[in-house]
Amino acid sequence: GFSGGGITCTNTGLNVRTGLLVSDCNIYMCGAGVNVAYFSEFHRWTNVTGKYCYYGCICNGGNNNFANCDFSGNKIGLLMDNSTGQSRNPAHGSFVGCSFHHSNNVYEGSEIVSVGTAIRILNMVPGEIFSGCQIGFGGIEIDDCTGVRFDGCNLLRMTPITVTDSTVVVFSDCTFYNASASPVTQS
After folding, report:
1. DSSP 100
2. Of 94, 85, 108, 72, the residue nearest 151 (C-alpha)
3. I need a labelling partner for 166 at 20 to 30 A (CA). Which of 3, 73, 119, 143 fits?
4. Is the pLDDT of residue 41 over 70?
5. 4 pLDDT above the threshold of 80
6. How high is the pLDDT of residue 2?
7. What is the mean pLDDT of residues 87-112?
8. What angle do CA 127, 3, 24 make, to 5 degrees?
9. CB–CB of 96/131 below 8 Å?
10. 10 Å Cβ neighbour count for 140?
11. Of the ranges 17-21, 30-34, 46-50, 147-151, which one carries the lowest mean pLDDT score?
12. Which residues pair with 119 in a beta bridge?
């Protein structure tokens, strides 16, 4: 519960042998619940919760895998940002069975009238895999990416999807609940 990062990995290596195993952690009210910087790779995250943070998770290193993690109730659930080409080796990891819900909700009385960003992915090549994840009440933004895939995901209400300047972005076997409240925009 402080303004810095809950768990921060900086220059923790690009080698399979240097990978960290992190499990069963609850991180609340931090600037970033999990912050995996560039050149921090091959880490495995299981049962990690980042809630009520500005960012639930920042994952800018490559080859990082998350299983059964929950990044809900944050201003931004997940940020992956290589927008200025900071790394030649970002992304190409996975999020399996993870939740990204209720990102920066704005209420009018007890009704949610707008939502923030559940997942924002910028210039990640060769992309990321999301499998069996639940995403709701927060948008998905994919910009200048190649190879981002959502398999078997449950996209709940108020989950607008915006794909810009990207190639090979795939939604396969996904469930779109209340699609009229979750527009898909591609440019």
Report:
1. E
2. 94
3. 73
4. yes
5. no
6. 62
7. 94
8. 60
9. yes
10. 27
11. 17-21
12. 78, 140
Taking Cα atoms as reference points, which of 91, 88, 89, 87 lies closest to residue 119? 91
Region of 47 on the Ramachandran plot (φ > 0 left; ψ -120 to 50 alpha; else beta): left
Placement of tokens 């921060």 in the chain: 8
d(CA 108, CA 110): 6
> Looking at the predicted structure, is the pLDDT value of residue 124 above 70?
yes
Q: Which are the contacts of 175, defined by CB distance < 8 A and separation ≥ 6?
A: 153, 154, 155
Distances (CA, A) of 134 to 60, 109, 119, 152: 21, 26, 11, 9
Residue written as token pair 């990978």 = 19
For residue 178, what is the DSSP state?
Answer: T
